[in-house]
């Protein structure tokens, strides 16, 4: 009896892990819900973005915390969408959230869109590029003044362009 219970627990745990990794089958695709100025086939996106950026921007993945050099990027400039080069955030709104991901308190005007992201542990607010629909990250209500927002972004979803912020 102990073995079958243990086996069931292990199988159940593996299944739960797989569901978490895939978004529980509830993956809400920004591209399916909205029309965007820039659209490409999955094959075109894969070819242009490469596997890691594709997984984040087009499949709503998340990079490992602390893995992006953009988290420590402190020069003056703009953070642009890695999918279409639309400017998303100014370095003037970047702050160290100590989460391991680049964080901002405000996007540039007309740069991002949001939608509910439903998962096992509740609903978050997903942030995507308003021009190509690429998933960038999530926004939370625990940021600094003046907005109180924390736009917690995947570094691989963006590129940094040095210069005036």
Model description:
This protein has 165 residues and is an alpha+beta fold. It has a single domain (27-162), classed as Peptide methionine sulfoxide reductase (Metal Binding Protein, Guanine Nucleotide Exchange Factor, Chain A, Beta Complex), CATH 2.170.150. It is built from three helices and nine strands. A hairpin with a 2-residue loop joins strand 5 (112-119) and strand 6 (122-129). The protein is globular, with a radius of gyration of 18 Å.
Write out key terms for the chains shown.
single chain, 165 residues, alpha+beta, 3-stranded antiparallel beta sheet, 9 strands, disordered N terminus
CATH T-level topology: Metal Binding Protein, Guanine Nucleotide Exchange Factor, Chain A
* Beta-strand segment tally: 9
What CATH first level would be assigned?
Mainly Beta
Under the CATH scheme, which architecture would be assigned?
A: Beta Complex
Helix % is 10-25%
Strands ordered across the widest β-sheet: 3-4-8-7-6-5
Subunit arrangement of the protein: single chain
Q: What structural class do helix, strand and pairing data support?
A: alpha+beta
Can you give the mean pLDDT? 86
Which sequence of SSEs, written as H and E, runs from N to C?
HHHEEEEEEEEE
How many domains is the backbone divided into? Answer: 1
Radius of gyration: 18 Å
Largest sheet: 6 strands, antiparallel
Report low-confidence residues grouped into runs of 5 or more: 1-31
CA-CA gap between termini:
64 Å
Shape label: globular
**CATH homologous superfamily assignment:** Peptide methionine sulfoxide reductase
DSSP strand (E) fraction? 25-35%
Total helical segments: 3
């Amino acid at each position: 009896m102990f073995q079958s219970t243990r086996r069931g627990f292990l199988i159940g745990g593996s299944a739960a892990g797989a569901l978490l990794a895939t978004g529980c089958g509830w993956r809400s695709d920004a591209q399916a819900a909205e029309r965007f100025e820039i659209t490409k086939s999955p094959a075109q996106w894969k070819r242009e973005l490469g596997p890691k950026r594709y997984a984040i921007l087009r499949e709503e993945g998340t990079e490992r915390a602390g893995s992006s050099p953009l988290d420590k990027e402190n020069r003056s400039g703009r953070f642009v969408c890695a999918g279409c080069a639309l400017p998303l955030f100014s370095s003037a709104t970047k702050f160290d959230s100590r989460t391991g991901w680049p964080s901002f308190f405000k996007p540039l005007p007309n740069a991002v869109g949001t939608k509910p992201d439903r998962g096992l542990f509740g609903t978050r607010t997903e942030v995507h590029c308003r021009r190509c629909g690429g998933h960038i990250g999530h926004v939370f209500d625990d940021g600094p003044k003046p907005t109180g927002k924390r736009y917690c972004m995947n570094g691989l979803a963006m590129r940094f362009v040095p210069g005036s912020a």
